[in-house]
Design brief:
With 77 residues, the protein is α+β, with helices and mostly antiparallel strands. Helix content is 27%, strand content 35%. The mean pLDDT is 94.
Length: 77
């Protein structure tokens, strides 16, 4: 395992409930190189993903989120 770690915040445009965000987070966590994905009910449009940039890139993370049927963009790069 690499010692490199990065994080990115993803903004989800749609209103999503807790279970929808959990499904998105689960899909992200299944990707090789993703160490964590989290969101909070107080800020439902924001999701933080910690990942190894040597194993996966932020574009793949965003593609995984949008594949769930929501519109989203990377912020805080």
């Amino acid at each position: 395992m690499s010692n490199h770690m990065a994080d990115v915040t993803i903004h989800i445009d749609e209103d999503t409930d807790h279970s929808a965000r959990e499904r998105i987070q689960d899909a992200l966590r299944e990707l090789p190189g993703v160490m964590a994905a989290s969101s909070h009910d107080e800020r439902p449009h924001l999701m933080v993903v910690e990942y190894d940039p040597q194993r996966i890139n932020s574009r793949k993370l965003l593609d995984t989120v949008t594949a769930s049927g929501v519109h989203a963009e990377l912020i805080g790069l």
